[in-house]
């Protein structure tokens, strides 16, 4: 009989992760994020877009982030196209690169995750993968997009769904894990 191993979090090394910025930049962003994005004190989308750009994000024109509760982990790993809407309480946990195309709607409470833990390892180290959301995609409220997922052009992830694999162009996906339901027809 083989011996079963156990997770040992005392061996986890958080310093193995490269934040991609100096400690000072990370510290400053942390407070800017809390004050201007997470809190309701800043109703201006223009200010939020300016601050994202200031910290290294690529942000197109016509981007709307007017509601509170939006949380961006590392703006220097974020690219947002033109005419994108990001809803209240959306969380972009971008330990890796997140690319959002043009005319994308990210609804309330959406989580975009680029990191997870290796559950097969006794050390439980963090593993990473980018997320790409192509043009015209709609990510429904309270949905989750997992690492290494590409949401292809004009696809839809229905409310409360979890994308663990790619969404094909013009497909409507629903469930946990999200599965293809039908083709999106735009009139």
Would you tell me the overall average pLDDT?
94
Biggest sheet, in brief? 6 strands, mixed
* CATH topology title: UDP N-Acetylglucosamine Acyltransferase, domain 1
Return the string of H and E elements.
HHEEEEEEEEEEEEEEEEEE
Structural class: alpha/beta
Which regions have little confidence, pLDDT < 50, spanning 5+ residues?
none
CATH C-level class is: Mainly Beta
Count the strands?
A: 18
Per DSSP, the total helix count is: 2
Distance between the termini: 62 Å
Gross morphology is: flat
Helix content bin: 10-25%
Q: Name the CATH superfamily classification.
A: Hexapeptide repeat proteins
Sheet with most strands: strand arrangement: 4-7-12-15-17-18
Q: How many domain units?
A: 1
Tell me the CATH architecture: 3 Solenoid
Beta-strand percent range = 25-35%
Q: What would you report as the Rg, rounded to the nearest angstrom?
A: 18 Å
């Amino acid at each position: 009989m083989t011996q079963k191993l156990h997770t040992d979090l005392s061996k986890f090394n958080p310093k193995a992760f490269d934040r991609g910025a100096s400690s000072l930049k990370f510290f400053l962003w942390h407070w800017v994020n809390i004050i201007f994005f997470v809190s309701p004190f800043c109703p201006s989308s223009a200010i939020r877009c300016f601050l994202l750009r200031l910290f290294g994000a690529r942000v197109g024109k016509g981007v709307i982030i007017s509601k509170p509760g939006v949380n961006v982990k590392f703006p220097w790993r974020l690219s947002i196209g033109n005419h994108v809407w990001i809803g209240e309480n959306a969380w972009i946990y971008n330990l890796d690169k997140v690319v959002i195309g043009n005319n994308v709607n990210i609804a309330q409470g959406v989580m975009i995750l680029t990191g997870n833990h290796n559950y097969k390892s006794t050390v439980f180290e963090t593993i990473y993968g980018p997320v790409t959301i192509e043009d015209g995609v709609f990510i429904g409220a309270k949905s989750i997009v997992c690492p290494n997922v590409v949401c292809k052009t004009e696809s839809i992830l229905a409310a409360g769904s979890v994308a663990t694999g790619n969404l094909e162009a013009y497909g409507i996906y629903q469930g946990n894990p999200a599965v293809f339901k039908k083709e999106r027809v735009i009139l």
